[in-house]
């Protein structure tokens, strides 16, 4: 080996510093705590100062590593929010899926089938007491299933709201803790504890990101500012802005042309926010005011079958038709509403941010296309729980209500035209209206079941209790509307109000019965020694009003077997009134028709989704399948984000040296390299001494 080569080898070995190994508590910090190591890069080098005997790093290398660490931290914060969102949902969705799956195992579809099958059996033996009891038992099972699932969804939603409340308390504490750390970082007395404070600050930021989706920035005084991704300021370095779970509320936004000085109130709860926009202004109390409604933040408006915006009329007393099952009332002493005035109803507990400028609604919102409202919270545990409550459980509840409503409407439409040997002396409707003076088919009537009503004939018989024969004036049972405006014989829901129905019944029954409207509800009473029997009703008005029906209620939440039927199985309508105005014992037309509904197809419509035309059993199956798909998706999203978060944590650990096994291996390798380099130096020194001692 040439002397020059030996000298170069020895020189390079001397000028190359060994690995800078620090004390254990600095080089391998906070094992398995999840805390973030301060960005002290004094031992991370990508360049070397060629100064003999010094161990240092290049400024360029430190800057590159620092930027890389910053990028990893930002990604980790964002991924933490995404992971927390889905992690907060997947276990609950698995429980909901289990509820539907368990019901399928126990026979939910069979529960629906058995209900209709029992009617088929009754049609074979219309007066058999055991068959009638089977119909009641099957109905009770159906009601218990649908109401039980609906109640579980409601109780789960309440539990989610309580979970959000707890998370908000923890979040507000963390936000204040971050303000305190910012203050200490800005203090000159904390210069020596800077690394510890940054470590504490980073840990707080990660705790906040578990609750919300956030973005961070640091000012020139090392103070961190935090906001949601949507831009709502949570910490402005020196102050924290709290978030709270607020009760249902309504906010108004009036146009410059409006002089409205009143308020708008509502009753009811819904998982969807509702925006009302005035389309025809005027004074409340004149009946001129009209509005339209949106369930997706004015992206679209509720429409009719032709695609036209539904127009809701405000009655002279200020009441309006229900929107998303919310009863709305306009209250004003004076002033005029103007087209364009909007009222945003939040009919649920919601997340509100408080700033010096006022309150901001931050409640997560999912549009009909599945996208998130980017102006609200979209990540973190709080968003996950709220989206689960409103978007998932709220949707399931709507579909259960739709299923129950469809079954109620279909069964009642047949049962209300039937008859039994247990006759009526008086009967009251179970469904009321908001305004008894407006056409029943219009939104202004407020009849919850108005969509099931159509134009047609209505028949009602008054029968002599002693002779069993129909009264002379009601021999054919037809209710004649010729005496009320617009003076047509048949009922027309687009022109006839509940008061018109009352007047037509009174005119048709004459002295043998009377009808009244009390508290916007129809009541019919037979004259002394007379009874009432219902016949054909192609308008389905009696069913919509809840008269002579099998079920009461309008949704899974309030569905029940009608009290009259539940207390007396003989009141189940298995047959129909014959041409003589009486009920034949062997009549089974009604039971047979209800039994046939098992295979009938119905139209099911949920806001934002295409209308489905399937049987009741098939619709329940699609609901169960949706719950399973949602649970599967949430589990996948959780695992996906967890894997990405783990990868980022590994990158972080590599940069900060928090992997003990890797650090020990690395130290051992450099220790061996150091020994080898020392031997090279010793060998080179010996060789140089030999060379120096060689004769010239």
Structure in words:
This protein is of the alpha+beta class and 696 residues long. The protein is 43% helix and 15% strand. It has 13 helices and 22 strands. A hairpin with a 4-residue loop joins strand 2 and strand 3. The longest helix is centred in the N-terminal third of the chain and has 58 residues, at 129-186. Mean pLDDT is 84; it is low at 14-59.
Task: Describe the structure concisely for a colleague.
This protein is α+β, with helices and mostly antiparallel strands.
Low-confidence parts lasting 5 or more residues at pLDDT below 50?
14-59
Mean pLDDT: 84
β-strand amount: 5-15%
What structural class is derived from the secondary structure elements?
alpha+beta
Termini separation (Å)?
19 Å
User: In what order do the strands lie side by side in the largest sheet?
Assistant: 5-11-7-8-9
Total number of beta strands: 22
For the biggest sheet, the summary is: 5 strands, antiparallel
Shape: elongated
* Radius of gyration, taken over Cα atoms and rounded to an integer in Å: 38 Å
Give the fraction of residues assigned to helices. 40-55%
SS summary, helix count: 13
């Amino acid at each position: 080996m040439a002397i020059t080569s030996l000298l170069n080898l020895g020189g390079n070995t001397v000028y190359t510093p060994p690995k800078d190994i620090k004390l254990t508590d600095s080089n391998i910090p906070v094992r398995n705590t999840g805390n973030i190591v301060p960005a002290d890069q004094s031992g991370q080098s990508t360049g070397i100062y060629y100064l003999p005997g010094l161990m240092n790093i290049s400024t360029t290398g430190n800057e590159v590593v620092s930027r890389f660490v910053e990028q990893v931290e930002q990604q980790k914060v964002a991924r933490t929010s995404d992971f927390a969102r889905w992690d907060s949902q997947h276990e609950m969705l698995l429980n909901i899926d289990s509820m539907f799956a368990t019901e399928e195992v126990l026979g939910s579809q069979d529960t629906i089938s058995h209900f209709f099958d029992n009617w088929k059996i009754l049609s074979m033996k219309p007066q058999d007491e055991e068959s009638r009891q089977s119909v009641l038992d099957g109905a009770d099972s159906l009601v218990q299933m649908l109401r039980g699932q609906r109640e579980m969804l409601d109780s789960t939603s309440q539990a989610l709201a309580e979970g959000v409340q707890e998370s908000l308390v923890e979040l507000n504490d963390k936000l204040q803790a971050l303000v305190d750390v910012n203050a200490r970082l800005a203090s000159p007395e904390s210069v020596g504890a800077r690394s510890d404070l940054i470590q504490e600050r980073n840990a707080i930021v990660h705790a906040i990101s578990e609750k919300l989706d956030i973005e961070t920035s640091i000012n020139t005084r090392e103070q961190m500012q935090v906001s949601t991704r949507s831009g709502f300021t949570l910490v402005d370095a020196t102050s924290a802005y709290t978030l709270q779970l607020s009760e249902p509320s309504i906010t108004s936004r009036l146009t410059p042309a409006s002089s409205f000085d009143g308020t708008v109130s509502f009753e009811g709860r819904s998982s969807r926010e509702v925006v009302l926009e005035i389309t025809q202004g005027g004074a409340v109390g004149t009946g001129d005011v009209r509005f339209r409604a949106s369930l997706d933040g004015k992206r679209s408006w509720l429409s009719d079958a032709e695609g036209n915006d539904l127009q809701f009329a405000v009655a002279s007393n200020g009441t309006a038709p229900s929107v998303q099952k919310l009863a709305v009332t306009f209250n004003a002493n004076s002033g005029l509403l103007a087209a364009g005035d909007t009222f945003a109803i939040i009919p649920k507990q919601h997340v509100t941010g408080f700033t010096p400028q006022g309150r901001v609604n931050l409640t997560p919102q999912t549009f009909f296309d599945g996208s998130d409202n980017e102006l609200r919270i979209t990540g973190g545990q709080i968003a996950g729980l709220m989206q689960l409550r409103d978007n998932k459980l709220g949707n399931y509840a709507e579909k259960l209500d739709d299923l129950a409503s469809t079954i109620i409407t279909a069964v009642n439409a047949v049962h209300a035209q039937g008859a039994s040997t247990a006759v009526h002396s008086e009967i009251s409707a179970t469904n009321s209206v908001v305004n008894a003076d407006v056409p029943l088919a219009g939104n202004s009537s407020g009849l919850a079941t108005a969509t099931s009503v159509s134009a047609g004939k209505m028949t009602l018989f008054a029968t002599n209790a002693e002779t069993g024969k129909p009264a002379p004036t009601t021999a054919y049972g037809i209710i004649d509307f010729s005496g009320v405006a617009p003076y047509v014989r048949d009922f027309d829901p687009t022109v006839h109000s509940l008061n018109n129905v009352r007047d037509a019944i009174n005119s048709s029954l004459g002295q043998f019965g009377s009808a009244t409207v009390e508290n916007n509800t129809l009541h019919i009473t037979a004259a002394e020694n007379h009874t009432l029997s219902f016949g054909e009703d192609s308008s389905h008005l009696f069913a919509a009003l809840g008269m002579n029906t099998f079920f009461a209620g309008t949704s899974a939440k309030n569905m029940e077997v009608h009290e009259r039927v539940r207390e007396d199985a003989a009141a189940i309508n298995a047959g129909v009134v014959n041409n003589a105005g009486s009920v034949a014992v062997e009549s089974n037309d009604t039971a047979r028709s209800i039994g046939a509904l098992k295979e009938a197809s119905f139209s099911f419509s949920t806001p934002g989704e295409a209308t489905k035309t399937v049987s009741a059993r098939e619709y329940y199956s699609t609901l169960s399948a949706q719950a399973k798909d949602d649970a599967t998706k949430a589990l996948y999203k959780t695992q996906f984000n967890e894997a990405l978060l783990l990868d980022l944590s590994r990158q972080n650990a590599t940069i900060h040296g928090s992997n003990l096994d890797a650090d020990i291996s690395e130290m051992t390798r450099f220790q061996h390299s150091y020994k080898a380099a020392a031997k090279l130096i010793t060998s080179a020194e010996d060789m140089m001494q030999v060379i120096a001692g060689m004769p010239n």
